[in-house]
Design goal:
Length: 225
């Protein structure tokens, strides 16, 4: 796997709980961004494109349920784990069919939160035992090996993770922020150039076999075979 597991956005207005979540998620290898206000949390999720979101239900300005509802409405299916203070909130979450991936009731063990998030991400990434193939490129995630027209292409860990991310969904354009979030565990706009540099190296190593397509001003994708 890559150096980091990706960025998690935590929206939690109780500082001690947010601090614990940050601590455990960081130790588990995730990048963590914390917001304490609902509206700001929603904005951060949209801006940073995390791999997963942890939402407290009771929040200032916009509650967690409303944040999730708005994400789903706009077609954003980022995995969401709810943290609730009361059992009746659990009924509300499940009843609204918000596409919540899991929930925890306070008080909860931060260790358990980490386990839940890892499980969701593993499930989401599906079966990695089958090599991905696009055009003349095959990518074996287990052996971390890439071949182009039958020749082995030596890639750095970052180049490999970038290619794997794009090959997991051919035809889908990934923004620089999405690639940063998934490969580097952070989404700082200032690092957009970093993505460009790694993509350029990847293209040069893959040569004529490169399936990478630039969508000007948007990001990158791998062409459907
Ligand atoms: Ca709260």
């Amino acid at each position: 796997m890559s150096e980091t597991r990706g960025l998690v956005v935590v929206v939690e207005d109780e500082r001690p709980i947010a601090d614990l979540q940050r601590l455990y998620l960081t130790e588990a290898g995730f990048g963590v961004h914390v917001e304490s206000d609902g509206a700001e949390g929603l904005a951060a999720i949209r801006r940073l494109r995390p791999v997963a979101v942890v939402l407290d239900v009771g929040l200032p300005s916009l509650d967690g349920i409303e944040i999730c509802r708005r994400l789903r409405e706009s077609g954003d299916w980022t995995p969401v784990v709810f943290v609730t203070a009361r059992d009746d909130e659990v009924d509300r979450i499940l009843g609204l069919e918000l596409g919540a991936d899991d929930y925890l009731t306070k008080p909860f063990s931060p260790r358990e939160l980490v386990v839940r998030i890892k499980t969701i991400l593993r499930r989401q990434h599906g079966d990695t035992s089958v090599p991905l193939a696009v055009g003349t490129i095959t990518l074996d995630a287990v052996q971390r090996r890439v071949e182009a027209s039958g020749r082995v292409v030596p890639l750095t860990s970052t180049e490999f993770d970038l290619l794997a991310k794009m090959m997991s969904s051919p035809g889908q354009v990934f923004t620089r922020e999405q690639l940063l979030s998934s490969v580097w565990g952070q989404a700082d706009y200032g690092l957009g150039r970093t993505v460009d540099v790694h993509i350029a190296q990847l293209r040069s190593k893959l040569g004529d076999d490169s399936p990478i397509v630039t969508s000007r001003g948007v990001g990158y994708s791998v062409a459907r075979a």
